[in-house]
Design brief:
The complex is a heterodimer of chains A (845) and B (473). Chain A is built from 33 helices and 12 strands. In chain A, helix 7 runs antiparallel to helix 22 and helix 8 runs parallel beside helix 10. Helices cover 30% and strands 16% of the residues of chain B. Chain B is built from 11 helices and 17 strands. In chain B, strands 1, 4, 5, 6, 7, 8, 11, 12 and 15 form a 9-stranded mixed β-sheet that branches. A two-stranded antiparallel sheet of chain B has the order 2-3. In chain B, strands 9-10 form a two-stranded antiparallel sheet. In chain B, strand 16 and strand 17 form a beta hairpin. In chain B, helix 2 packs across helix 7 and helix 6 runs antiparallel to helix 7. The two termini of chain B are 20 Å apart. In chain B, 62% of the residues are buried. The chains are: A mainly alpha (845), B alpha/beta (473). At the A-B interface, helix 1, strand 10, helix 27, helix 28 and helix 31 of A face helix 4, helix 6, helix 7 and strand 14 of B.
């Protein structure tokens, strides 16, 4: 800080002087830069007078000594000071040319331009030194990859054998064996299986994000078949609502959003295509390895003659890399690019590997075995990829053309219609003008006035036919023109938008340079593209010179021997079921993440998942068939309740099913569903602004619209301004990957549930239905409400509470002067709202 | 990094019973002890013995955000050389990265005069604020890193222009805990939705209870500034009371197993109900005297809007809200005068000068200025060189913010820009330093106020920030 403080002034006042003195490099009789004499005469005196006080015999700040061959060779703590033959990669040059405040030397002020040039020239010439050649040490990795690979998450999983347990009756699937074996160690007996209605509700909420309808509950409870449960699970897995709900989980992981957020909040007008693809992929159980490869390298998997819908999907999938928040008004374009690459590395690391690479942008990772060189090896892959079309403020991201032949044809046909229409307008204009000109001509020749629009003028003043203004056209022609032009506008408005999707394409292959302290202004040595050394499978990643390396990166990730990919994903699915991962930090499988609570279980799931052909639905079936999943959430259902509560109050070892609040989207969707208002239309964009248009500019005028009864996944995710209800209920705004949403309890949630038009509106719709279904018998109203909202009948006590509550509220409404005919409906709406705000409705149990 | 200096007297707050204090604070907030402990992993919030807590000079912050970037050289950073060299070429280099092309030096169209016992120069734009210079510490050497509004606004509010991080108000709310359980700890009045929007008051990875609660939006008048969902559009309090009783009864009757989350939800409805009863009274300024209303400029349509924000800010601060932000913005271009500086800055300053001075006067006469830290500033300043013929471009390299009240040594200009007001050169204060100093005044060590997230301990000041002790009284 202090140093920077001095430098600021120095930078300012030295620049002008530098320009003046920066003349020729050296006089004609001086030694050539490629000579040791040049060093002695030209460079050594500079080092002696400007550097040696801090980097000499007395002091070696930053571990650097510049007063001899040994020191010049060795460099300092931040790396090689001199790379012979490459001034651009030499930190000494970075420092003295003062391109970056983080490393600007000497502290008292900039060297004369000619002196900096001399140092450059000497290094570019190979840095010859009178005492011999500089021997720059090869950078030593900060750790031994082989040793670090012994960390649990970096060792490939081996399929473990399910352990033996005390009571085999508690084991329905291998999952149970792994869980119960751990409980056996503590002497805990798991809770009994929950009642069927609770299970169906739980399965519906977990798989589809919606509660079961009363009919679905009735049918399930009435089904005596032994496989009734399996059938129910299959029904839910086959429901389109399944893909919608699972996709919403995935969108958190990939920080999906329909706007850029950050500084310039403009619309990702085509992000919805990615979202719809994810929904479809979950619904048809696209194998996860194929799903992942499409994310990183979809554009490279497109083949000649491929089904065009699949082609569009593959091009759309790389939207994953393009959707991150970007500082689109960044004035420093190199920084913008470096920041985009950084965001991509961070997202790929967290989403697929459960590792955070961000730290290694500036230095070797302090905790995880990821060196700065590893980071720039990955950065090379993304630097060799084109994400942006233009970097000029406001920067534009690239979009791939994903139009199908039919869409292209429709667009061409539309354009042709527009063109044809324009031609007929032009023809009418020309025809009219010709006629008018001819009439004027004959008027002049005949010496008579033609009257009407062109009358009165003398022949000499008549404009050439092409310039006759339309005001002179006959009335009927002008009317026809106006009508034609109106039609043209309609045709233009009806033109389909070109079908494009955010996504990347191959760029110019390049190896990235290790940036000193992460600053793009201080680039150092180049490193070959690749993956972190500690994660190499057998050998370094083989990146072809001609490509970016994304395809190889994707193939490496889905290699069955990869230690992380399958583990990270099955842990996410487990988190979606139980509210907590086996590794409780789903985005961090590194040294700072939490250890798995049951690694054999995790490894078994990972191996089984890969063996099944990466089938996500298979994984769900496995989990849903387990006794663990079907256990009651009530502690009293465990015969060893006291012990279990003492040892594991939050049920982290799953001796019972852990209770949890619905996620924001399910709160909304479930409320709409039980009120009978949910619109299940799928797909498409609901953004109200055009692609790349501002959602929010300096005016702060709020034009966001969330007033739709469709499922929450289809509402635009506006970064910096997500839906109120989503914000209040811990939804992420898609700025960073987040596989572990919080679940807070704050008073503003209560205010929303009590006072928002949404909740009141849903409650009124619900009450209206209940009252309409029981016009004569008020006592039936609670039954209808409870069945719709909670999927069960009210107890006698609950029905009494509801009836008394409604009566009390009616009386209070009367005191408020509400007319009698409105009171009943309002009172029951207030009761329905209390039910919608209650714990039983809003919790998975 | 310097810690709190040894000369400061020992913590006056007894540290003997943190557990009990914590318990009381939690219970007052409406949560059962167990529920609170289970839900609020923070544990130490509101606890004077929290590891980051030290002696505090201020208990709360009022931040006056001037959106768009007011010009330092036309307000509080007097540069006689700039006036003398009007029209000449800047004799040193412009920054490597600029927002827009600029030309030669542009003298300030306003006259400066000395004010107060300290004799600090203030331009004619702020005649009312000028009377308070002896209470104000002008931070003339502020600098940031981002020359575009979005990045700079985020940097100012969250310390980061590239990542989503908790807002400074959320950090303060987390660091100090609530002072009034029936109110949010962090309110932002008429915030701007542009340039970061929500993320300028969000809690990011900090627990949601620390996030700022917005009242209204910059594009609407402050008379409409309300906390969303505070108050029911259909039912009166009596009806709602019965509804809440029913809700509580149904939750109990449902027979769900005892669980801290469920208990906390029950309590949250009661807290909401109390908030709903408290907030309207605080927002209602009808009880203020005509003299007070005039003090804030509510008698003049030009100053009415910002004056109302400032008056509400005082009322909330008085009631125990830890961090109140007011925003001078609207649906136009605010302080962002790329052209016609004269008209733009004249208009903007005339809207805020009286309200700001009124707030300072009012806080002082109520004895609140001693422990209320008032912070004023925009996301950056403006260039001393002209953009076009009569405008100024964004300048993050040297600009002025100011602090007054709680523990601040008034009547001084701290730090300096170069002789034209372009670059901060003396005792440079990066925005991280401003944050560190602000936290220090609140008795918070910015290096110790951390939150573990994604395997790392995060701070408002990232890995930087230095407390500038020269600012302190």
């Amino acid at each position: 800080m202090r140093r920077a403080l001095l430098l600021g002034r120095a930078v300012v006042f030295c620049l002008a002087a530098a320009v003046v003195v920066g003349g020729g490099l050296a006089a004609a009789d001086d030694p050539a830069p490629a000579s040791a004499a040049f060093f002695s005469q030209r460079v050594a005196p500079l080092l002696e007078s400007h550097c040696a006080a801090c980097h000499g015999a007395e002091k070696q700040e930053g571990g650097l000594r510049l007063d001899g061959l040994a020191g010049l060779s060795a460099g300092g703590a931040t790396g090689a000071a001199i790379v012979p033959g490459s001034a651009a990669e030499s930190l000494l040059v970075v420092a003295v040319s003062r391109v970056d405040d983080a490393l600007a030397m000497p502290p008292e002020g900039k060297l004369a331009e000619a002196d900096v040039a001399a140092i450059r020239a000497w290094i570019d010439a190979g840095a010859p030194h009178p005492d011999g050649p500089l021997t720059v040490p090869v950078p030593v990795p900060p750790f031994d990859p082989a040793e670090k690979r012994r960390f649990w998450s970096l060792t490939p999983p081996q399929r473990p054998r399910p352990p033996a347990v005390r009571d085999a009756a508690l084991v329905a699937t291998p999952i149970d064996a792994f869980v119960v074996a751990r409980l056996d160690e503590a002497g805990i007996v798991p809770a009994a299986i929950a009642d069927p209605a609770t299970l169906l509700r739980r399965a519906s909420l977990v798989l589809t994000g919606l509660p079961p309808t009363p009919d679905e509950v009735d049918a399930f409870l009435a089904d005596p078949a032994a496989d009734a449960w399996d059938k129910a699970v299959e029904r839910l897995l086959a429901s389109p609502r399944y893909g919608e709900h699972q996709a919403r989980h995935w969108l958190d992981v990939v920080r999906y959003a329909d706007s850029n957020g950050l500084d310039e909040n403009i619309a990702h007008g085509n992000a919805w295509r990615y979202r719809d693809w994810v929904i479809a992929a979950f619904n048809r159980d696209e194998p996860f390895d194929a799903f992942l490869r499409a994310h990183l390298a979809g554009d490279l998997l497109v083949t000649e003659g491929m089904d065009e819908a699949r082609r569009a999907e593959l091009l759309t999938a790389t939207g994953f890399l393009a959707m991150g928040p970007k500082v689109l008004a960044e004035g420093d374009q190199e920084k913008l690019l470096a920041d985009i690459v950084d965001e991509q590395i961070d997202t790929v690391g967290k989403a697929f590997l459960g590792l955070s690479f961000g730290c290694a942008r500036c230095h070797d990772h302090k905790f995880d075995p990821v060196s700065q060189a590893d980071y720039y090896a990955l950065a090379g892959v993304f630097k060799s990829t084109t994400t942006m079309e233009s970097l000029a403020r406001i920067a534009k991201w690239h979009e791939n053309d994903v139009a199908t032949a039919a869409e292209r044809a429709a667009l061409a046909a539309g354009q042709e219609r527009v063109a044809a229409h324009q031609r007929s307008i032009d023809a009418l204009l020309a025809e009219t003008r010709t006629a008018l000109a001819a009439a004027a001509q004959s008027g002049v020749q005949g010496g008579a006035q033609t009257g009407g629009e062109t009358g009165g003028d003398t022949g000499a003043a008549a404009p050439p036919p092409g310039e006759i203004p339309e005001e002179r056209f006959p009335e009927d022609v002008r009317a026809r023109l106006a009508a034609l032009r109106e039609e043209l506008k309609g045709l233009e408005a009806a033109l389909p938008a070109p079908a494009t999707a955010m996504g990347v394409r191959e760029g110019t292959p390049e190896e990235a340079r290790v940036a000193l302290r992460g600053s793009h202004l201080a680039p150092g040595r180049r490193v070959p593209r690749g993956v972190p050394a500690v994660l190499e499978i057998d050998r370094p990643l083989a990146v072809p010179a001609a490509g970016s390396g994304r395809r190889e990166l994707a193939d490496w990730l889905v290699d069955p021997r990869h230690p992380l990919t399958a583990r990270v994903f099955v842990n996410r699915v487990w988190r979606w079921h139980f509210g907590r991962g086996i590794v409780p930090t789903p985005d961090n499988f590194g040294f700072q993440g939490e250890a798995p609570t049951n690694q054999p279980l995790l490894d078994w799931l990972a191996c089984e998942f890969v063996a099944s052909g990466w089938s996500v639905k298979h994984l769900h079936r496995l989990i849903l068939a387990s006794r663990v999943w079907r256990s009651s959430s009530d502690p009293a259902a465990s015969p060893t309740r006291d012990l279990a509560e003492a040892v594991d109050p939050a049920a982290e070892r799953l001796w019972r099913f852990p209770l949890r609040r619905l996620e924001a989207e399910s709160v909304r969707d479930a409320t709409l569903a039980v009120s009978g208002l949910l619109d299940t239309t799928m797909g498409g964009s609901m953004l109200h602004v055009a692609n790349r248009a501002f959602l929010f500019d300096h005016t702060s005028i709020d034009g966001t619209k969330y007033d739709s009864p469709r499922r929450s996944i289809y509402l635009p995710v506006i970064r910096n301004h997500i839906h109120d209800a989503f914000w209040l209920f811990d939804c992420t705004d898609g700025a960073v990957p987040n596989g572990d949403r919080g679940s807070s309890t704050v008073a503003s949630q209560a205010l929303y549930l009590l006072n928002s038009e949404f909740e009141i509106g849903c409650a009124e719709a619900l009450a209206e239905r209940a009252l309409a279904a029981a016009p004569a018998d008020r006592a039936l109203v609670p039954t209808i409400l409870w069945r719709r909202v909670l999927g069960r009948h009210p107890t006698a006590a609950e029905a009494r509470l509801a009836l008394d509550g409604a009566a009390a509220i009616e009386a209070a409404l009367a005191d408020e002067g509400v007319a009698e005919e409105a009171r009943r409906k309002r009172a029951w709406a207030a009761v329905a709202q209390a039910l919608l705000a209650g714990n039983e409705f809003l919790f998975v149990r | 990094m310097p810690m709190h200096p040894p000369s400061v007297p020992a913590d006056p707050v007894p540290r003997a019973a943190p557990g009990r204090r914590r318990l009381l604070a939690s219970t007052a907030a409406g949560f059962g002890w167990l529920a609170a402990r289970a839900l609020l992993a923070a544990g130490a919030d509101g606890d004077a013995a929290a590891p980051w807590r030290g002696p505090a000079r201020a208990k709360r912050v009022i931040f006056m955000f001037m959106k768009g970037g007011p010009s330092q050289v036309d307000t509080f950073d007097y540069k006689p050389r700039l006036q003398a060299d009007d029209g000449k070429e800047l004799p040193f280099a412009k920054p490597r990265v600029q927002f827009a092309p600029t030309g030669n030096l542009l003298g300030s169209p306003w006259k400066f005069a000395r004010h107060g016992a300290s004799g600090i120069h203030v331009s004619e734009l702020f005649p009312h604020v000028a009377r308070h210079v002896d209470d104000i510490c002008f931070l003339n050497s502020c600098h940031g890193t981002n020359s575009a509004h979005g990045g700079a606004v985020l940097k100012l509010h969250t310390g980061s222009d590239t990542f989503v991080r908790p807002s400074m108000g959320a950090w303060v709310n987390y660091g100090l805990g609530t002072d009034n359980a029936d109110l949010p700890g962090f309110l932002t009045i008429s915030p701007t939705l542009a340039h970061g929007g929500l993320n300028n008051w969000n809690s990011a990875f900090l627990p949601a209870r620390y996030q700022g609660v917005p009242m209204g939006v910059a594009s609407r008048p402050a008379t409409e500034a309300r906390v969303k969902f505070m108050g029911n559009p259909r039912y009166g309090a009596a009806v709602q009371r019965r509804q809440l009783d029913l809700l509580a009864g149904l939750d109990r009757a449902a027979g769900l197993p005892p669980d801290p989350q469920l208990e906390a939800r029950l309590e949250s409805f009661e807290l909401a109900f109390r908030m709903q009863a408290t907030m309207p009274g605080l927002q209602d300024i009808a009880g203020e005297t005509a003299e007070t209303l005039a003090l804030y400029g509510l008698d003049d349509p030009r100053t009415e809007n910002f004056g109302r924000q400032c008056l509400m800010a005082r009322r909330f601060a008085e009631a125990g809200v830890r961090f109140v932000q007011v925003t001078h913005s609207d649906a136009k271009v605010q302080w962002d005068q790329h052209g016609d500086l004269l008209a733009g800055h004249t208009e903007k300053a005339s809207e805020v000068d009286r309200p700001i001075a009124g707030l300072l006067t009012d806080l002082k006469r109520r004895g609140l200025l001693d422990d209320t830290l008032v912070v004023w500033g925009g996301e950056f300043g403006r260039t001393p060189v002209a953009q076009g013929k009569d405008g100024r471009d964004h300048n993050p390299d040297g600009y002025t913010m100011w602090m007054a009240g709680g523990g601040v040594k008034g009547g001084q200009r701290y730090g300096a820009t170069d002789e034209y007001g372009y670059y901060a050169v003396d005792r440079r204060m990066h925005i991280h330093d401003v944050h560190a100093t602000m936290l220090w005044l609140l008795g918070i060590d910015h290096e110790k106020l951390t939150w573990r997230h994604a395997g790392r301990d995060f701070r408002l000041t990232d890995v930087a920030g230095e407390v500038h002790h020269g600012v302190l009284a």
